[in-house]
Amino acid sequence: MDTNEIKDLIEKYNRQTATSAEKKLVEEWYDRIDGASLTQNNLEDATVKQQILSRVTASIQNTKTPKAKRIRLNYGLFFKAAAILIALIAGTYIYFNSTNRSQIAATSVKANKITIVPGGNNAVLLLADGSQIILNNTSDGQVASQSGVQVIKTKSGELLYRFAGNATAKGATINTVSTPRGGQYHLILVDGTEVWLNASSSVKFPTAFVGNERRVEVTGEVYFEVAKNKTKPFIVHTDQSDIRVLGTHFNVNTYADEEYQRTTLLEGSVEIKRGDKKALLKPGQQASLNAKSDGIKVNEIEDLSEVIAWKNGYFQFEKSDLPSVMRQVSRWYDAEVIYNGKIPAKQYSGKIPRNVSIAKLVEMLAWSGIHCKVEYNQITVNPK
């Protein structure tokens, strides 16, 4: 059993055409890693990779195909497991078969010209007086004090708002935290609500919540874990809707270059309001809004981990088209993406750590059939 046969099995698994025995093998292997985080250290641990490759090869060689049976399948698990398999096997193959690197002929990275690096904690705090604080260049500790509220950068790199001494929410000023392309940030508002910003995103909020509601405004992609307060609802305003909650976990994707604005609920309940239309979401549901129409479409989401993969340090694609995949890559690596030829009408599934180098990223993408050439700050995609 060689690496190409293993790769074929993974592809069958992704296409849901694998036999029961092959599906069982993938599930058992996924259970072995138990959804472990795929950090750069994991991918570069030669001992771990060799053990995994040996085990998978031996298991496939010793597996006999049983008679076909009708089984109710958990496709979300299949895609999740197969995505991790692709990432790890790709890393194993690349490191342990260096003489065969020419097989990925369409993938090219000019090492002496690389200026693209993965993103990281990078954000700007805009205070009410118009002054700006570049957070990644700021030392830990208090960075500002406004209307009785301290703004503190913690040792872990978060931005924390808290009342100074016995101060209360009697007055407030407006602050904005924004991330550039290739940036992300985590902040905790004065009420305890936690906010995570993806690349090229922003949240505008009062330093203290005065009155009968807690209102913030967002752009880009933001994940919230809202502190519960039954007497003071939390409202997230976007350019297309108001999202009203009491205490819950949800993700808002409102990038201008995406066809739909999507709000996905993980815990609790939220109400989406758009003009005179409303929709109430339950956990596992997603509301989609299109600027070309005034409706609200609600869908069930099978795998919520895909929606917040960015927050947990991954790219995760499940039946995604090529432009959708590359838009995420472009934002995080702050790179221009261009297409050499016609964009194929294909769907891609996979899971890749967001901290990998651009060279490793394009090697992994090549295993899914996405071939790229990287030079300076530009990624050229050669669709096939």
Automatic annotation (TrEMBL):
<keyword id="KW-0812">Transmembrane</keyword>
<dbReference type="Pfam" id="PF16344">
    <property type="entry name" value="FecR_C"/>
</dbReference>
<dbReference type="Pfam" id="PF04773">
    <property type="entry name" value="FecR"/>
</dbReference>
<keyword id="KW-0472">Membrane</keyword>
<dbReference type="InterPro" id="IPR012373">
    <property type="entry name" value="Ferrdict_sens_TM"/>
</dbReference>
<dbReference type="InterPro" id="IPR006860">
    <property type="entry name" value="FecR"/>
</dbReference>
<keyword id="KW-1133">Transmembrane helix</keyword>
<dbReference type="InterPro" id="IPR032508">
    <property type="entry name" value="FecR_C"/>
</dbReference>
<feature type="domain" description="FecR protein">
    <location>
        <begin position="176"/>
        <end position="271"/>
    </location>
</feature>
<feature type="transmembrane region" description="Helical">
    <location>
        <begin position="77"/>
        <end position="96"/>
    </location>
</feature>
<protein>
    <submittedName>
        <fullName>FecR family protein</fullName>
    </submittedName>
</protein>
<dbReference type="GO" id="GO:0016989">
    <property type="term" value="F:sigma factor antagonist activity"/>
</dbReference>
<feature type="domain" description="Protein FecR C-terminal">
    <location>
        <begin position="314"/>
        <end position="381"/>
    </location>
</feature>
